[in-house]
Structure prediction request, 122 residues.
Amino acid sequence: MADCVFCKIGAGQIPTQFVWQDEHAVAFRDIRPLAPTHVVIIPRRHAQTFGDLGDRDSGFLSSLGKAIREIAEAEGVAATGYRILSNNGHDGGQEVPHLHLHLLGGRELGPMLVRRSKESGV
Ligand code: AMP
Prediction:
């Protein structure tokens, strides 16, 4: 997509140091890291959310497992643990409209989400 920053990164049009790459996916460090390890993994082909993936994206989906495994090993968080997180759409809090997964680790990350209220519990 013409104006998509992550498409440009994936295509090599914005100079970015990749921590991992193959023909389907690239991974790079988040510019505003939330943990000692904060890597963003994206498909090279544009899709906005997981809901936009189709048959053409099977290559990306199989790359993903390998990417996560190898990045976690290389970053030294495979044994201590890490979190994979993907914000999708408005309620998911997605800021960059190109599908991506965050790999976070290097410290105890705490609960998955903060509970909104004691009354509702969710
Ligand atoms: P979100 O869409 O909320 O899952 O978050 C998008 C993430 O992309 C944020 O953590 C940003 O800091 C990160 N980000 C945005 N632009 C860049 C960039 N050019 N290079 C690296 N990370 C980026």
